[in-house]
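Why does residue order matter? Because the sequence determines the fold. Keep that principle in mind as you read this record.
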Amino acid sequence: MQIIIHAGAHGTEEDRLMKTLLRNKEDLLARGTAVPGPAKYRTLLKDCMSAAQQGDPAPGARDFLWDAILEEETAERVILSNPHFFGSQRDALEGQRLYPEAEQRLLALQALFPEDELHLYMAIRSPVSFLSKLLEKAGAGRRHAVLNETNPLDLRWSAMAARIRTAVPDIPITLWCYEDSPFLWAQIMREMGHLKPDSKVKGGMDLLASIMTREGMRLLRQYLHDRPEMTEVYKRKVFAAFLDKFALDEELEEELDIPDWSPEFIERIDQAYDADVAQLQAIPGVTLLSP
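Structure:
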């Protein structure tokens, strides 16, 4: 069995992606990929992973888990999604280390599923929006501690990926930038479901629709309908052009509640992030999806 682990960068896309995948549940299952509902496994898997970190799993743990997760379904591949696979928001950062428990949790998953092939999928995002999202519900003490201990200029997703590859080299990693998600939505689902690049998927423009006016989406759908032979690569260029004209500005502008950060400092953070994204492409075993 191939297990697609979809972890999160504590954004808003993780559960939205699961909802879109569930819209394609029957079509994916017909092609060998199961998409069980999160209620079937999130709490169960969390408890089993915690136990596996304390010692070897009990005999028969794998079969028990698959019976609970798949029930009567038969598949070659299963997609398991949880924004908290690597821990809660509080566990997402330790100084300059992104998701410090990632390696231990993946090792626990390998122990639970020793006969299966794991593949990690995950969005990354600029430290600007990542820290803002991470701290939006934090108390004053937590905010103060994080902002004093963490330099956003030095946060590196490439360092996290390198740690994971060292600890669990058998697990390939597929990443994409959260900022690119609206353009990659359909491709992400195809990659997870092991579908052909031109396969039809339901909801491939769901995320785009959430940041574009209704009129813009109507015109976009008509434009695509009139050009059925358009390639996926060219579609993304069309998406960008329509978004430039019909974007909902209030959906694109994320609130930044860190008053000490000047526009110049934010620009430096984003430049460091761009360099970090480029560095990811040099890590063996890491695939970076891009528009």
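The chain is about 50% helix and 10% strand.
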